[in-house]
Write the structure tokens for this entry.
Amino acid sequence: MVVKKLAAALLALVLTGAAYVWWGMPARADVTALARDNPARTAVMLQREEEARRAGRAVRTTHSWVPMGRISRHLVHAVVASEDQKFFGHEGVDWDAIKESVEVNRAQQRLARGGSTITQQLAKNLFFSTHKSLVRKGQELLVARWLEEDLGKRRILELYLNVIEWGEGVYGCQAAARRYYGRPCSDLGPHEAAGLAAMIPNPRRINPAVNPARHARAQRRVLWLMGNAGYLGRLDLGAEPPPVEVEEEDDDEGDEEVEPSPTVEPTPPPLEVPTPETPPPTEPTPTPPTGAAG
């Protein structure tokens, strides 16, 4: 009798936990629609707008969409090398990185490191928020699997590079390239691409307009990772990578600064990223995703 009661209680606990994770999830159809539709606004954009209103600041958002064919291959290389070296080999989740993050979090007794892949980061930006919780991580894992199944790697990268945050009110690589380098993202060279990729872990702090010295250190690290991955040819980058910037604790996902292993050789992107001379394809009309959790 006692065993049956314990089993029933355990089952109830599991079902309650599963229901709690499922609550607030986007509809699968909303994820599938991203294969053809470009989101105009994301959950993180809405979060930042609400934060600005609460702080009494003007809401300013700079965001313009650019297709994959007009994104510099150097930026693709910089982002993959620094954010998710196994991107082309995993199915949305890097379980080794998650295991390492659990060990770090246990040692520090806080959610200090997330181990998120590019696909998980995209799920967060589109449908959730930057606030950390185990429930949100569970939701993120499920949506990441849907994204991988429904969209494919190229489309995931195109969405990611077009919606992620690159400073206060700046979203997407086109707006970021024009803001920080005065040129379209198709014209970014390796150093400029590394400069943008360096900002991704915490774009409102690792930012050339906020802390140029800190941003320069992070940029050098991305260049080292690009060179180590074989994207920059023969450069004297040194035997050891520059250190990871240590971030103080806050609620932002941006302080999850996961150190990519220098020993991992990422699979070169199976993407034909055209040069800037390639005629741009017709840009689809943006439509916002529905069903995003508040």
The CA atoms of residues 202 and 254 lie 4 Å apart.
